[in-house]
Amino acid sequence: MDDATSAVDQETNTEIQDALVKARRNRTTIIISQRVPNIMDCDQIIVMQNGQITARGTHTELVKSSPFYAQLVQTQLGGDYID
């Protein structure tokens, strides 16, 4: 969805993401994204670097245990989402 939503404004992107949250309730959903806000509320996040899985967990777990994920959060969102 990153490429599909890259040309829309933030308000439209938020509306799309909200609709997706509703659509995936009570379903197993695989989301592939480079944008942290699109995956922060997922039950499990898998972090990949150079084609390898390097970490797995919730957003809160990963900001503490994965330097790579924490750096993505810092770069994309600033310090507000580092728990």
Automatic annotation (TrEMBL):
<dbReference type="GO" id="GO:0005524">
    <property type="term" value="F:ATP binding"/>
</dbReference>
<dbReference type="GO" id="GO:0015421">
    <property type="term" value="F:ABC-type oligopeptide transporter activity"/>
</dbReference>
<keyword id="KW-0378">Hydrolase</keyword>
<dbReference type="InterPro" id="IPR027417">
    <property type="entry name" value="P-loop_NTPase"/>
</dbReference>
<protein>
    <submittedName>
        <fullName>Multidrug resistance ABC transporter ATP-binding and permease protein</fullName>
        <ecNumber>3.6.3.44</ecNumber>
    </submittedName>
</protein>
<keyword id="KW-0067">ATP-binding</keyword>
<dbReference type="InterPro" id="IPR039421">
    <property type="entry name" value="Type_1_exporter"/>
</dbReference>
<keyword id="KW-0547">Nucleotide-binding</keyword>
<dbReference type="GO" id="GO:0016787">
    <property type="term" value="F:hydrolase activity"/>
</dbReference>
